[in-house]
Amino acid sequence: MMLSRSVHKHAIFIISIITTSIVVGSKNFSIFQSDDGALYITLVKQSFIWTTAIKSLTTNFFQGDGGVFLTMNVWVNPVFIVYKFLSGNDVVFAVNAITFFAMCIFLYFLSLSFGLPRLPASIAAQCVAVIACTPAGNILGFASRVISLNSNFAFTGGILLFVIAIIHYSSNKSKTTAALLGLAVGAILIYGVICDPLWFIVMAVTVAPFLICYAIAAIIIGNCTSLIITASVSLSIFAIPATYLYGLIGYSARNVFSSEMGFEEDRSFQVIALYTSTYGAIIYILSALGCCLLIYFGGRSSRKIGWAGLGQISFIAAITALYGLSNTNWALLPLPLYFEVAAVHLSIIAGCVGWYRIIRDYAARTSGEGILPAPVSKMIWAATFVPALVMLKPSSQPMPPVPGALPTTLPGELLSTLDPLRIQPGQPFRGATASMIGFNSGELAVSRPFSNAKIAQLETLWRQGIPTLEEYSQLVTSPSYLVVSRILAGRGDNHMRNLLIPRRINPALMKALGVRMVISNTPLSEGVPIGHFTDERGQDFYIFEWPDYNYGNYSPTNIIPVNSASEAISRMAEGDMDYRNNVIVQNGDIDATPLTKATFSEIVFNADSKIDLAAGSTGTSIVIIPIQFSRCLYVDGDDVYLFRANLMETGILFKGKIQVRITNRFDIFHPACRLRDISDMKRLDITALRREREAKGPSPTGERK
């Protein structure tokens, strides 16, 4: 009977959040708002074509000479699996509903673990989920739009909330139960890494203050044996993906060149609701007071939650103040609003527990009954979604694009002209494009109008299946960043940490990187003009073609050995560098044997992100393919050697006629190869280039020298 009653109450909660989730979805909030939204939709759909469940961070043929996709694994994340079966507004509805439903579930279990009964836990979970996942959060002053833009962000963060709930639940369990819960936590953490490794790291950093305060409180208060067991077992399991995560971050440009990166915007954009909204400040203050009540009146277990919640709020408030008052470059750290989006839920729920305890005890003392009579409790159980519906009442429109001089759309006729570049699985590579629109404008590459316009242009091209030299990824690699920032852009063109935008035209290098067509809003002196279009705003678009681009057929015979990245960049920046006949190689990488030109060479991209290469030679030859090199690339042929060419491209040394397949083996089970990439960067001393730029000091705005 007791079990039946428990299931009945949980079933009512499930029904209520399903109802609320349907309302959230039907409101058509467009969980993907503004520029990021269309980009995510395009990349998710591409991921289903070009990746697999294990190989989710593989070669992305659409951008940056094979830069990785955004880090989400669409195959194992329920938020994104709907993209494989739905389209249009149906996708928006489903993603909205699933994201909200998942967040409610995670917050519900967190509330139960922290000590709320089912009814208050249900209400708290749904109200906090409304703040986290809908525009109601914006109305209250919270930065919830970040979760609204990134559903995998919300799901990955929810996983960590669930982990914290399990950890707290284990605090008063037996040693055996604590060990089993530790196994469960470890398995859930690995699942979170597979879902989205980068956002998992970001979310883990944002909840770290809560966990640190919780651990300190547990040590001081005592009775932490079970917690130590749970944490030890889970961390031992989590050691499995640790190398994988290090490899991801260690090879990224933000790990080495974060001091050069930035985003030009009003810093108040990143300030949390405590400082910007009356409603937000009230929620923060009430949550902090609730945590204080929990510390003062709660038991040993509750006091840990109170201290952790209060510590989290204090940390968020302090780091936001530091950000707002300083000019520190935060390219390596999560911005303050991420701490609010990802972790403030913990403090709000903890505060709710404190206030509930006080109200419950007061009601019990004054009436001798429970906090609510049974009939009233049942009525609220049947309508726990009402608070959510009330908060959802204000209508919301997608965020308007930030105004700027650059166009955010491309004419249809222009896209038709680029149609020969379209890539599909099983078809040969026929060149990429470079969108040089605004390359000579006065707007900075890191300005919001410029970067937003670029993202919109790139999304349009990728949606049409057209590869680009530009790259948008949180894991932009160090070699790719160096080539673009040092040769294809100037010192005044500081880049965003996840968007590489060429601002200078270098035909020889760009052709070597596979660029066949260039889009510009001004006539160019290089290339063959093949199109001139004007949009409804009167904006001109020109397309120029470079016939002798590298489609995998460049076969140099002269090897230029270098000992450092600085030396490689200097040679590549030379105006007379001929990549068809010369290749820059790390000293000692390949023997300087007599080379002959390859008689033919062609590359084909396959649906599983594998590359087929067919080439022939009358002797020993090299071919350079416009794909970023990595020690994780594996070739299945004999007497075929892959090496780093021109700092970032893939060179193939072979004899005779070959028909081979190249595979990127990097994944959570094969991370060691990425450590060799990091070792390459250390041998090339890439940090010398950063030190050199730092020594020169800030450049004048817009300087491109």
What percent strand?
Answer: 5-15%
Tally of contiguous helical segments: 24
**Arithmetic mean pLDDT:** 80
Oligomer: single chain
Principal-axes geometry comes out as: elongated
Low-confidence residue ranges: 28-35, 145-149, 376-403, 701-705
Largest sheet: 6 strands, antiparallel
Separation of the first and last Cα atoms: 78 Å
Structural class: alpha+beta
Describe what you observe in this structure:
The chain has three domains: 2-30 and 71-258 and 275-392, no CATH class; 412-545, no CATH class; 558-687, no CATH class. It has helices at 2-26, 34-50, 89-114, 118-133, 136-139, 145-149, 151-169, 175-195, 197-221, 225-250, 253-257, 273-276, 278-297, 300-325, 336-367, 374-382, 386-392, 412-417, 448-463, 478-486, 507-512, 565-572, 672-683, 687-696, and strands at 427-428, 432-435, 471-472, 499-500, 515-520, 528-534, 540-545, 558-562, 582-586, 600-605, 611-628, 633-635, 641-645, 649-664. Strand 8 (558-562), helix 22 (565-572) and strand 9 form a beta-alpha-beta unit. The radius of gyration is 28 Å and the shape is elongated. Helix content is 50%, strand content 12%. Strands 1, 10, 11, 12, 13 and 14 form a six-stranded antiparallel β-sheet that branches. The chain has a four-stranded mixed β-sheet with strand order 2-5-7-6. The chain has a two-stranded antiparallel ribbon with strand order 3-4. By secondary structure, the chain is α+β, with helices and mostly antiparallel strands.
